[in-house]
Structure formats: C-alpha cells, structure tokens
Amino acid sequence: MGSTGSGASAGPSFIELAGAFGGALDDWSAAVRDALAAEGRYQNWLARRLGTPAPKVSLWLRGREQVWLSGAGLPGAATTRAIVRELGLEGPSADRLAALAARIDDLQRELEALHPRDWRKRAVEHLRGTGPAPAPAPAPAPSADAPTAPPPDIPQPATRRGRRRSLPRLAAAAATGVAAAALVAYLASTRATPDTAKPAPASQSAAIPRAAALEQPGLEKNTLGADSRCGEPVPGPESVVWRVCARVDADRVAFAVKLTNQADGAVTARVRVRVQYARQKAFHPCPEAPNPQPVDVPPGRTVITDPARCSVPREPVPYAYQGVGWVVPANANAGSYELSPTAHVHPDRIIWKPDLL
User: Fold this and answer.
1) How many angstroms separate the CA atoms of 236 and 218, rounded?
2) Are strands 269-279 and 319-329 parallel, antiparallel or unpaired?
3) CA angle 297, 140, 214 (to 5 degrees)
4) pTM of the prediction?
5) In the chain, which residue ranges form alpha helices assigned H by DSSP?
6) Which one of 111, 181, 200, 243 has the fewest CB atoms closer than 10 angstroms to its CB?
C-alpha cells in the first residue's frame, strides 16, 4: 500500500516520506533557532511566551530527534503561527517557517494514511541512523556583542546556516537516540581528564543529590566565584545539562563550561568539551587547552572545566569578553557553540549583559 513505491502510479514510499519528514523537522528546528538568535531571544523566553513547558520547546528544536525522544505532538502550522507572532517575524523568515510547518503537517498526514496505527514507530526505525550529526539543543541567542565569526580552525559546514560549527574531526559522528523516558534526561555521552576538567568544589558537589534536580532556567551568578556569570542551561547530550561561564578577576578574565549529569541512575555521562573565549567578537583558543577534551560527569554530579586553563590577562583598556563552549557526544564531530553572558570589562568597573536583576 504505497510502502514499496513499486507501482508506476504509486506515490512516494513510506521510507521516502519518512526521510522527507525528518528533513522538514530538521529545517524547521534550524529556522526557529536562527530566528531566536536573530531576535536575541532564548528558548526559555519562548516557552514562557507560548505558555509551553520548556522541555517541550527544547524538543521542538531537536529536529527529527523529537520523533523518538517523546511521543508528544510535533510542531505544525498552529505552533508555528504562535512562534512567528511572539517573535514578531515578517517577510521571508516568517514565510519560510510557515511553508516548513505546512510541509510537516502534510507529510505527517501521508505517513499516517499509509500506516495509521504505527506510523511513528516505523518512521523512527528509518530516521534513527539516517539523520545528520546531532546538534545540541538550542543555543541561547547571542547578545549584541556576541561573536559573529567562528575560530579559523572550526570550518562552517556548507549545508547549515546559523550558529552551527564543526569541531575538528574527532571520529565519525554517530546518531544518538534515547527513549521517551529520557525526556527529562535529554542528551549526551563522553569523558573527562584531570588536567582539563575538575569536579565542582566540595561544597557545591555535596549540595547536589545523586538524583539531581533539573537545572533551573535563567542565568547563574557567581558560579565560578565572585563576579562570574553563566548562560542559560543547554540540554544534551542525553542526561547532561550545561552552561558556558565567564569570570572577571582583578588581573585576569577566565572561562569555563559547567556540566551537570541529571541522571538518577549509575551511568556516567561521557562527552567532549571545547572551551574558547571571544574578545571584541573574535574567537580565540584557550591558552592552555586549545583542543576538545573528553569529560566524565558522574550521575547526579556537576563538573566544571578548569578556568585556570582558559584564562587571559585583564587589559587596561575596555574590552567585551564572552566564554564560548561546545559539548557534544564523545564520537561526534559537529555541534553548536553556546555563549556566556558578555562581560564589558572596563579598568574601573564590569558590566554584564544580559545580567540578573
């Protein structure tokens, strides 16, 4: 019944439709991420505006992965109209999102018509393993001072727009998938070495129970010590939630990534982490840790990469700094960078944008 596509007059096969469906979801998610970045908005802001749980919005921005990460409804025309309205989109960007949403709805109807009872299960069987390298969930939108160019050794994939950047080739990327029960856990796998990452201070680690509570939305203050800020939490890969942080001291500016494994089991999350910094919109490698490093995050614990390995002298003239971080599965070779809040460092003061009230 159209599942083989062998007849001369038959329409597309189920496999062809499923592939197109996955591609449409990937494109829709990328377009929404781009729109959020262009408007300087975070995904948690969008969740609040839509009155939708933040984990659900995070799933929408996972592209095809949302088909198997949860059994919840997929984004379509109604959801897209609400997003366009809240972001105030007009012209080509609004038209593109509307067209992608209509395509998602049309393809879903065709898939349901071929296999009404188990179309989603069948689609998952095809989509898992055929998709692009997984992209960590939506990036906080950069501020006005956010970097606009990737570091020279991180090439831009030709097929992606927006803030997706390739890490140096580490291994063949492997598609990941977790069951619906992992919705709260979200995404990741990978490993840590003592010279590049360290557990959170004893007082901080002790405050985190084995079955860690979900990271709270919003920015964090003083996570790395006085005069430090961390960006909004980014879910994934798998049970890891992470933030990019920056700290300003009297004589230095330091950068780090904070990772929390929210799994309540006994599985250590193994991920790859890269930290850089941006000064006046230009990316720079960390002086003592220029390459991606494996990091282990025990269940229910927090690990913070060593700020001392990504630290630069504080200049006597004003500069704007941001931490830049990537967290990807251990065997992935691509991911999206995230940014810390911007530290506008003057000789006599520090102004953070955005900042907590």
Assistant:
1) 16
2) antiparallel
3) 45
4) 0.48
5) 14-39, 43-50, 54-60, 66-69, 77-87, 91-114, 119-127, 202-206
6) 181
